Amino acid sequence: MKAVQLVGFDGVASLRLVDVATPVPQPHEVLINVKATGVNFAEVELTKGRYDVAKQPPFVMGFEAAGTVDAVGSKVTHVKIGDRIVALVSSGGYAEYATADANLAITIPENVTFAEATTITVQGLSAYTLLKFAAKVQRSDSVLVQAAAGGVGLYLVQLAKTMGVKKVIALAGSKQKLDLVVSLGADVAINYSERGWADDVRHATDGEGVDVVLEAASGEIGEGSFKLMAPFGRMVIYGARNIHDTFSPEQIQQLIYRNQSVIGFNFPSLRPEYLTDAIPRLLELIARHKVQIFANHVFPLADVAVAFEALASRQTIGKVVLVP
Ligand SMILES: NC(=O)c1ccc[n+]([C@@H]2O[C@H](COP(=O)([O-])OP(=O)(O)OC[C@H]3O[C@@H](n4cnc5c(N)ncnc54)[C@H](OP(=O)(O)O)[C@@H]3O)[C@@H](O)[C@H]2O)c1
Which of 16, 96, 221, 321 lies most in the core, judged by the most C-beta atoms within 10 Å? Predict the structure, then answer.
């Protein structure tokens, strides 16, 4: 079968379309005939050796796969051949076939395409569990979302609204992105590539600062966002681009004097029980059109490098999808 392997850590130059053996499902696994697979920003970092460095090339890329079940292992009872599923995968998703633990299989709702389904596994569920279990958002919270028109960001904006927070302040890098997030319910949208963005955020909170910062940007945006926290504010750090070296003594002092906290979040290390309610709740919100899915950047598997460049150069909105 055709698959995309990572053969080194030289960025997109290390991505190769190759022929490899079709994986065979273990007793607890299913084999997926992949119809769509998604690109996540962490994978851009992965190609440069800046994410999950324990995994050494060559290996088939891809955290998720949406498609039909082609075969099931001997111990699988609740998933059957022909089912439309999306799953986090054990054998790489950037391929014509991939294996997944049957317990991780999510049935794709009827009104959702395979491309759209690729947004659910990593981005949708990360956004949901991050807001619920890490940020623990309350109705009284103002929430600052960076990269708000990205794959995770669009879910964060919409889910924070469904959770009833007081105000969603969305940050993004172009007018088109800002217009979209406003149409999806963001109360305020600010272009953080323009000077003065932090003053605009503070103004939007009547000078109080924000209760929750969802931090994926790092650098100047990260530092600016850190300063914008209100008393008892909390910052959830979840971004793969977010390689904070250390916190400065001034930043630690700010945390102490303003009773603030910094919280880490990593979706892959969540225990399965965190997903028990999250999966049906997210699917229900999608089915009721309370949450819209954006998966319009679709590339053939052979154009994987073009897809990665599009994501890394900030041209995309929502999910980037690969089709075998
Ligand atoms: N911790 C976890 O478990 C977890 C799970 C899923 C995702 N994540 C993280 O969440 C973040 C979003 O992931 P995603 O897959 O949905 O990607 P994404 O947000 O769709 O990534 C692309 C967008 O990021 C923004 N961006 C900000 N700084 C950038 C930079 N230096 N280079 C390129 N783009 C930049 C751009 O939007 P603007 O033009 O608007 O800035 C761009 O369009 C990533 O950091 C990812 O690693 C973490």
Answer: 321
